[in-house]
Every structure is written in C-alpha cells, then in structure tokens.
Amino acid sequence: MLEGAALLAIDEWGIIAENPEDEKEVLRNVNGMPTRITKYKHSGDKDNDLFEIKIKNMSYSTSNQKNTYLMINNEKYGHIISPKTGFPSQNKQVGVITKSAFFGDIISTGLYNQIPEGFYKIMERLSCEMEISGFLIDKFGKIHYFNMEKHF
C-alpha cells in the first residue's frame, strides 16, 4: 500500500466514505446527499458517515486528514505538502474512483492540495483519458462532486 491513502480493489458494490471529521455534523440536501461538514458537534446515535459508494470492478482511493494530520495554531492541516507553497493543505478529503488503484492513489494525492476550481479542471481533463469520478471536501467542509451520480 502506498503511504497516505487507503486503497481498495472492489469486485462488489458498497464502500462507505467516512466523514473525515466524524465528530462534526454532516449537512444533507433534501435527497439525503451530504453538502457540507458543519462546525457543529454530531449529536446523533447513528453513524456519521458521508455516503455509500457503489462500484464494481473499480478502485476507490482517498487522501484525507482523518488519521494523519498536524495542528498549527489550533487549525487542522493534512499531511500532504504542496510542492508549490511548501505548506500542507487544509482540505479535509479527496476521494477518487478509477479502474487502477495505483493511478487512483497518485491522483487523489495530487488533488488533495487543489482548490475546487483546480479539482474540477483536472478531473475534466483526466476524464478525457480515463474513466474517473470523485469528490473534494474543501477546508470549509463543502463537498464538491465530479461525475459521482452513477455511484450513488
């Protein structure tokens, strides 16, 4: 396994995308889809996962700050350092679905430092070369989806 990402090769459907800040409440739209991780404490008895991803013969790769992060001035930063700035990202999570777990891990790591506009631009470009879907949870907790509809 490569450092910093969870890799799973799945031949059946059903992966649970965990909330990278499971102590915080997830805001959902009328269809039950997560739109944002709030600053409020999760108070329910149920799991506080994001969603179930349905995939077959695909791989799900993720980079996040759930278990590996550092605190600077009481702010959480991910463990992946930006080669441009030399600083870690404040994004909370990236999830990528590809045929290859190897490429998915590389892509999720690379996308972790992107702002939403960069995430969409790169995903659009990659989708011309391969089958790819994914999401980015930015530093504010907002969830940005790319081509994920078929996996819900």
From TrEMBL:
Its cofactor is Mg(2+). It comes from the Bacteria. Its EC number is 2.7.1.180. The keyword tRNA processing does not apply. Pfam families: ApbE. Keywords: FAD, Flavoprotein, Magnesium, Metal-binding, Transferase. InterPro entries: ApbE, ApbE-like_sf. The keyword Signal does not apply. One of its GO terms (molecular function) is metal ion binding. It catalyses: L-threonyl-[protein] + FAD = FMN-L-threonyl-[protein] + AMP + H(+). PANTHER family: FAD:PROTEIN FMN TRANSFERASE, THIAMINE BIOSYNTHESIS LIPOPROTEIN APBE. This is FAD:protein FMN transferase.
